[in-house]
Amino acid sequence: DTGVSQDPRHKITKRGQNVTFRCDPISEHNRLYWYRQTLGQGPEFLTYFQNEAQLEKSRLLSDRFSAERPKGSFSTLEIQRTEQGDSAMYLCASSLVLAGDNEQFFGPGTRLTVL
Amino acid sequence: AQSVSQHNHHVILSEAASLELGCNYSYGGTVNLFWYVQYPGQHLQLLLKYFSGDPLVKGIKGFEAEFIKSKFSFNLRKPSVQWSDTAEYFCAVKPRDSGYSTLTFGKGTMLLVSP
After folding, report:
1. Is B102 within 8 Å of A108 when comparing Cβ atoms?
2. How confident is the model over A83-113, as pLDDT tens digits?
3. Looking at chain A, which residue has its C-alpha nearest residue B88?
4. Which chain B residues are closer than 8 Å to A91 by Cβ?
């Protein structure tokens, strides 16, 4: 399968713990996006990268959230000191930007439950 | 900032019925428009997209959507639904004149097709 992959698919953690999620984009895609989706809502944009550069991070929900894409390939999203309100599906998407706009391909998501 | 409104949260239809899902967006400039679908247990997939040109766009599985600029609408249609169309449908918008390469999603419409 050459689509976007995310790991883990499910994560249960206790409030106050740190969690890290990984996203592997489609191999030739240079843009990578993180979204959050809560019940009854559409995906909400968090941040995105072009290669290793993080081009937009003002939408990250708080300073407890951070993301990296150190080599321009896979990315990680970390949530520190998790809270119950962080429980959600975290989606990753990737796209290839050459000229003009592009389609974002989504991964299966990581479902986070904070107890 | 842009926003997307989907008219119905839940739609129930019988097989062979016609479908129209409403989507309106708010943004003063030019936009790209998308419909994504999420089948049960699967990840988000692109159904169709509009960037420019003919405002009536055709997507996969017999779906089509019409962009009406004066109404800020991008409604999704299918003449005859099948049981396999049961899924959640999301409308999304991306401003073309913005530096952000991000999608803004509506809350989604859950479609249930009864056999």
Report:
1. no
2. 999 999 999 999 988 756 678 999 999 999 9
3. A42
4. 43-44
